[in-house]
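=== RUN LOG ===
request id: a7f3
mode: sequence -> structure
chains: 1
length: 138
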Amino acid sequence: MLASIGRRCAALSLSAAECAELEPLAAEWFVRGAGEEELLRALTGGLPVPVHHPAGLVRSRLVAKLPPELADLPPASAPAVGMVECATCRTPGRPEALRDGECGVCRGEPAPVRHPAALPPERVRALAAGVRSAAAGE
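=== RESULT ===
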């Protein structure tokens, strides 16, 4: 993988000896779950112009950008208590609303109609007065 970096980014061409020297550092990335594309992005992204010492830059990035060990990662967050997802469309909802694991829409029921809360008449009058005032240039 290290030898092929020079084909993707000529500024990072490495010799066989440099590849052999850097191999243990690159191998640690794979041990920690990184893929080849992730490693390539970390090594080739945002390079300075010009690159004066490719092996030194690669060594520095292999160490500085090393991902955490898998055991150091925080556990995945648990779903909100009392909420589940529709098995078909993944819409969140209460368990009692998801019969047989599906929401009403996925079961073929019409979507619930939601009416916005009505504004009191005095609020409507005040908003209309503000619009009229702005239109009149006041």
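=== NOTES ===
The first helix runs from residue 5 to 8.
The mean pLDDT is 84.
=== END ===
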